């Protein structure tokens, strides 16, 4: 999900603490990029449907496998021609969203997710009678078990040995949804909740935009608020060359508020099921510190064998190797 609370920045420098994080966690290889597992025809049908509703999808981009030679590789959005800065890429009318009604009272975040998941479940039950049938078909094509909270017990145990105590990466469904939003043993609705978190924007699910992958080191798009006007508008923020992938940020976005200061790499794993490429942000609110890991020479690369820079803020860079990292918050 893209969580948009209006929170103040609570993470500050100053409190001394010593920690160690094995670099293996920073490059935890269950997946390295956002996973799109839909069949190509389903994605194409969504695009055609959105365009038929007054939307727009540039003929300079396409949805395809990251590895064109591997039909099992994840999907992404790619440039098929050179694209100029500010060029229009995608427009999605609000009428194409699966969203809570504007006249509904918005509750707390978890309650909104629950209500949106039930709305998605209702659209699924409608089947061909759904006004959003192509998008619902696409969503139903997503594999189960992508988020850590829905992994097998063995998978959860493996990750639990590496995450910080108190982390909700594995337990948020149990804490906030089971027994309240859906029955304890309702595996279908558990999957629907996971999909709502993974692909949703607080109170809305947005077709096509949820197919654009995340990489904070290579964001090349800009957009207006997903809730402004009558449509989402996405443009190129820089020149994009033919063959390059189109990227957005899931936690440093127009509607994200200050969430980037409390929501980093572990939270991306929690809510999307992948470990983001560098640049990575690691946040420890209990100790009031955060830091970023970025490749030292070329900050766009995701090669875990190269030297990394441990970046505390705009003024301080600390060089570290790709072995275990030990650090102390500067006083």
From TrEMBL:
Highest taxon listed in the record's lineage: Eukaryota
SUPFAM superfamilies in the cross-refs: SET domain
N-terminal signal peptide: 1-39
InterPro entries registered for this protein in UniProt: SET_dom, SET_dom_sf, SETD3_SETD6_MTase
Pfam families xref list: SET
Molecular-function GO terms, alphabetical: protein-lysine N-methyltransferase activity
UniProtKB keywords: Signal
Ranges where the SET domain occurs: 59-251
Keyword Signal: yes
Keyword Membrane: no
Protein name stated in the entry: SET domain-containing protein
Source organism per UniProt: Odontella aurita
